[in-house]
Amino acid sequence: MLNAGYIEVDITPPLGLRLGGFMNRLGLPSRGFKDPLYARILVLGNGKEEFAIIQLDLLGIYRSYANTIRDAIYKALGVKNVMVATTHTHSAPETVIPMWPNTLPYTDEERALLDLWMKSVVEKIEEATGTLSLETVEDICVSYTNIEGLCYNRSFPGEIFDSETPIIMIPTTGRKTIVYSSPCHPVCNTDLYYSADYHAYVVSTLSSNNIKAIPLTGAAGNVSPMRKGYYYAKSMGSELAKRIINSLTTCKRLEPVISLGSTEVEIPLRRVEYEQALKRFREAYNKYIDVFMAERAKGIVDERYFTMFEEPLYADQELEVAKLGLIRNTVTELQVFRIGGINLVSFPGEMVSETSLLIKRALPEINNIFSTYTNDYIGYVPTEKFFDNSRYEARTALWSIVDRKAEPLIRSRIIDLIRDVV
């Protein structure tokens, strides 16, 4: 017999924090709200094993912050096995990868505001989790839909990508709760307003149908929505919710069995020579700073900035990567939470679609749900193809710091961990 508990808490930040994910915002502060940001907590147990999934409407988090949240969950519930997932919405604060760390470093006031808010998120999670109550799970089941026609392979247009969107439904006496994983970047909204992007409309549409949802983002590293704009976030989210609801009519029952596994993995990082990076940054800074600050003073977001300021952006980012200096490797974490015959697999950064397809081909008899941007953020983990074709995902920046050897290494460790948990 399984027991489950669900609770959510509003973690919408105060105005004035910088938004992450788009350089064309030029480090401007947030101005308002399109929709609120949430933390959602699901606890599942069978009397012997138990785990919690914490989902945050955030760009990402580093491992130290994930561990702080885990400590809060353990303090409130005594649950040790915790997966901390973020959806990677690009309309949330810069909790990872500051876009202009050298050109436009944070002021003391900006840093203090960000730190205070991030501390409040942990406090809200701990307080909310302390009120969570468990209910008996009636019949846990799995179904599948897809994002075909809604998103595309942005790195290799026209080529296939993993569009599968799995759903786990956990009905209890008090509610229906689902966990779904959508393999598409939440990047529809590009302005200066907070938003959970298309996931907000998936969740709200499902809620109107008496279904609570925990949105995860799957292997979305090189998969983007067909269009940009907040109107498309609404359209895409509403359509995906309809597909999810339709899929639940053929939901396949799972056995109420839980098993868990985790491992650490050491990831090789790329190297950038500091003096050369510093020289490139100074040249780009001197060349662009006047026009950069003049455009920033306009207080607008303009698509032209992607090409206007590409050179100083990457000079800034390469210098930041060079500052990593003697750090040749980073240690991160992988988790597998197995429910019945389904594995929920964490990935600590941006998994490209090719990786998810390769894992599925290696394990054709095993069903896996990927939760990326989870427990840590190590940036893009591109396959050799991205490096060989000089794609954005493999270009040196804080969002792309791993060596080309990283992808086969982490993929192999994921496959081994899944087999061990099975």
Features:
alpha/beta, five-stranded mixed beta sheet, 2 domains, globular, 422 residues
Describe it for me?
With 422 residues, this protein is α/β, with parallel strands linked by helices. The protein folds into 2 domains: 1-271 and 328-422, no CATH class; 272-322, no CATH class. The protein is built from 10 helices and 20 strands. The protein has helices at 63-77, 108-129, 198-207, 230-247, 274-297, 305-308, 310-322, 353-362, 384-388, 406-421, and strands at 3-10, 32-33, 38-45, 50-56, 82-86, 135-136, 141-146, 151-153, 164-171, 176-182, 193-194, 211-217, 223-225, 252-253, 258-268, 329-339, 342-346, 350-351, 367-371, 380-381. The strands form 6 sheets. The protein has a 5-stranded mixed β-sheet with strand order 5-4-3-1-6, covered by helices on one side. The protein has a 5-stranded mixed β-sheet with strand order 12-10-9-7-14, with helices on one face. Strand 3 and strand 4 form a beta hairpin. The longest helix is centred in the C-terminal third of the chain and has 24 residues, at 274-297. The radius of gyration is 21 Å and the shape is globular. 48% of the residues are buried. The model has no long low-confidence stretch (mean pLDDT 96).
